[in-house]
Description:
The chain is an alpha+beta fold. Among the domains are: 23-69, SH3 type barrels (Roll); 170-290, Periplasmic binding protein-like II (D-Maltodextrin-Binding Protein, domain 2); 339-493, CATH 3.30.1330.60. The protein is built from 14 helices and 24 strands. It has helices at 3-14, 92-103, 139-148, 188-195, 222-231, 244-253, 286-290, 311-319, 323-331, 348-357, 364-374, 395-409, 430-451, 478-484, and strands spanning 23-29, 35-43, 47-52, 55-60, 64-67, 79-85, 107-110, 117-121, 128-136, 153-156, 163-177, 186-187, 213-217, 239-241, 257-262, 270-271, 274-275, 281-282, 297-305, 341-343, 378-384, 416-423, 462-465, 486-493. The strands form four sheets. Strands 6, 7, 8, 9, 10, 11, 13, 14, 15, 16 and 19 form an eleven-stranded mixed sheet that branches. Helix 1 (3-14) packs across helix 3 (139-148), helix 2 (92-103) packs antiparallel against helix 9 and helix 12 packs across helix 13. The longest helix is centred in the C-terminal third of the chain and has 22 residues, at 430-451.
Amino acid sequence: MGVKAGLAALGAALCIWGSAAAQDVTLVAREGGIVLNGTLQGYDGEFYRISTSYGLLTVDGQGVICEGPACPELTAPKAVMRVVGSPDAAALLPVLFQAFASERGLVYESVESGDYAARILDPESRKDLAEISFAPLPPDQATAALEAGAADLKLAYRAEAGFSSHAVAMDALVAIVAPDNPTPEISTVELASVLAGKVTNWSEIGGPDMPVVLHALAGETDIQQALADRLGAKEGAVELHPDLASLAQAVAKDPWAIAISGRSAIAPARRMPLTDSCGFPLLPTALAIKAEDYPLALPVMLLAAKRRLPLLTREFLDFLRTPAAQAAVAAAGFVDRSVSRQPMTADGLRLLNAIQGAGEDVTLDDLKRLAGIMDGADRISLTFRFEDGSSTLDAQSQDNLADLAQLIAAGQFRDQKLVLAGFSDGSGAAEANLALSVDRAAKVAQELAAVAPDLSPAQMPVVEGFGEALPMACDETAIGRQLNRRVELWVVPDFSPTGTPPVLEPAP
Length: 508
């Protein structure tokens, strides 16, 4: 299906309510002299959106008079929110919109339709306040719909240039097999080879002499794009399925099947343990996914065109950052974005990796300095990474930065000291890597100061760099090196006198 055909189908899918169809209106300037004729696309209580001979225009309602049968009720306009995109994360939408309505004392009501649709009602008058719809579309067609103004939001697994992104939840890609598959584990390199069709027998990766049966989702999906981004492999599956539930059901019945699914849609199959190329375990725990330490962690995002959004849409996007929204995310089986913390000593695998990686480039003194600062510290799930080949924080990290600024301002880390701990991969000289890790941590501190200029020096994190001393994965692969290049956030109890800014010893 081409883009034009996809947009035509989208138009049909979104016309769930006849009242939502665009109609002719005339906007007349209150001071006279300007008249705009066009089709009404929406009114959010503040601004009209109309399609005119000049293109799609947003007009301040205070400056015009609306004439025509399609003009909305100014006291209680009905909002329309059209969402398109990945069906793999669509289970989030009903619970989020229901929680959104509940927070405002409104009534949420699903609408029987082929795709997800709902409305939000006034509890007393039962008047429609909002109409919501979701139409599943391939990634490129969903993007085209957003660009054309045929949709308000796109549900996706990655940010895209030209759109604002709003983090909703976290998910992760995992390899799934039948419960009775005897193969003990699979590495990221082996998984990429299986997906590309280069490995066709389980004996090639430590299993029995049986053919590998590859399953996948039919059609172009966000999951396929994410796999290509992370592993450099595009699925060459022979068994295709319409959705993740059907995929898991089929894999569970075939002892020689394998597929990639979302962490939230595994049963009745089981997750196959994943390692990196050097054998380091890669576990999709909630903390590892939030911190993106798991290489196939995926942010679930809502993308919006960079134009003024309707009031309801803006309120909903603001709601996504609230505890009520994150509770709804967890209830839907996804990993919420609430900030969590874990004692550094609880993650023995990281310390084991550090010891195994010690050698000529990572000395015992380096490890002692690392251990001294880690002693008594907790790791916060907010981790910062940069776009490839750039000093710009990626979309997920920018959201994390905003969360950190909010937490500090709210006093969440009072009487504690924050440490931005920078790390590098093992490529290049150790001295240069140490300097680079310090620079990365300092860059995050600089960005934090720009986002939250009202924070005092005592509230700001201190900067530390440890180079390649605490690897998350092996440096032999691109995905391993990317995991190792990061800035972590640590919290250490502060026993200094009140009003005295905490100071850590600088890196040698």
